[in-house]
Amino acid sequence: MSKSKGHRDLIVYQKAFDVAMRIFQITKKFPKEEMYSMVDQMRRSSRSVCSCIAEAYRKRKYQGYFVNKISDADGENSETIVWLEFALACNYITYEEQQILERDAEEIGRML
Fold this sequence. Notes:
Layout: H1 11-27, H2 35-58, H3 63-89, H4 95-111
Helix pairs in contact: 1-2, 1-4, 2-3, 3-4
């Protein structure tokens, strides 16, 4: 018998975690001068999607709090998409990388 993992069982959480980890890997190759600006922002916003989902799950009994945290997750997800656009415009990622990550982020947004 498997034990429930709570928020980790949610498909939306799993997808968001995957995107955040892919962004972590892809940003390793960004120029050093972007470490404290674009890299930090991309990693922070993508990881925040997961943390907001976890917080919402924990407080799911309280509709107002739940909706607020899911809304926060959606906002962080949208911010991540914007940073991907900047990364593409700066030639830090390929068009294909940007499209795949944006497609996945858009799916997460629909799920939220």
